[in-house]
Amino acid sequence: xxSQSSAGSGAGSRVKRLMAPDIAAKKxxxxxxxxxxxxxxxxxxxxxxxxxxxxxxxxxMVMHGYxxxxxxxxxxxxxxxxxxxxxxKRALVVVDMPFGTYEExxxxxxxxxxRVMKETDCGAVxxxxxxxxxxxxxxxxxxxxxxxxxxxxTPQSINVIGGFKAQGREEAQWAAIEEDARLVAEAxxxxxxxxxxxxxxxxxxxxxxxxxxxxxxASAACDVQILVMEDMLGLSPxxxxxxxxxxxxxxxxxxxxxxxxxxxxxxxxxxxxxTYAMRDAHQGGVDGAGEPGRATKKPKKASS
Length: 304
Ligand code: KIV
What we know:
Elements: E1 6-7, E2 15-16, H1 20-25, E3 32-36, H2 40-47, E4 52-55, H3 59-62, H4 74-87, E5 92-96, H5 106-120, E6 124-128, H6 134-142, E7 147-152, H7 158-161, H8 174-186, E8 191-195, H9 199-208, E9 213-216, E10 224-227, H10 229-232, H11 249-266
Parallel strand pairs: 3-4, 3-10, 4-5, 5-6, 6-7, 7-8, 8-9, 9-10
Antiparallel strand pairs: 1-2
Bound molecules: 3-methyl-2-oxobutanoic acid.
The site of 3-methyl-2-oxobutanoic acid (KIV) has 12 residues, from strand 8.
């Protein structure tokens, strides 16, 4: 059985994993919570609090140091997608299709999206674009691949747009963006990201289409909120205006690394409790048990 439909070891511990239709069905009910996730461990933590986790191509920028998402290869998405599916047991995992892997034709999009689904075991893919991607969305959905659409600011088109600019701040832009939202919904997308969008437009779209709108910089009017995890944790050096930092993880990492470096230089780390003693021939028995100087705090990590 796919780990996207159930997860956990042993019949008693199985957790039902949310699927794309579960997310779609939440529209108009309680707010839906999501974050990006790129590692197994952070995915496991977020899993308890989020309805879905997005393995977004922003990982290229926040983890791999690219200036934009354009250079991100499919293989990187698959590698991080696998890690997140391993870490999260309940949340739907959605993996972004990176630039250049789906725009050319519906059949190329299907080939790459099917690869993502098979190799990561995720439950859906996301792709950027409104009307221009409607035919592809229909093609993928008809062939068994749930699709999350993404309109408004579409960072993969940064070189055409000319910067990370908020969308729909002038009413003259609204009709085209509303049409994008309507067409991706009609094509069968189960949800749509609205990125960096003026609040009144996001509210109109949310009220007009039957699928959940996922806001990132698109106001509380949206059905779902998503943020890039590294941004909201306080781990990214620069964040867009719409990000609230809920943590100061970057500062905590800096403090920890600084403390480590100081102790190594002062020769106070490693201390006796972090050091393996010789086996005591008189005590015999299990390796390490009762030895003075053997680390006992985290036995699962110790090896003989
Ligand atoms: O890649 C990403 O993180 C995204 C979010 C901005 C929705 O697409």
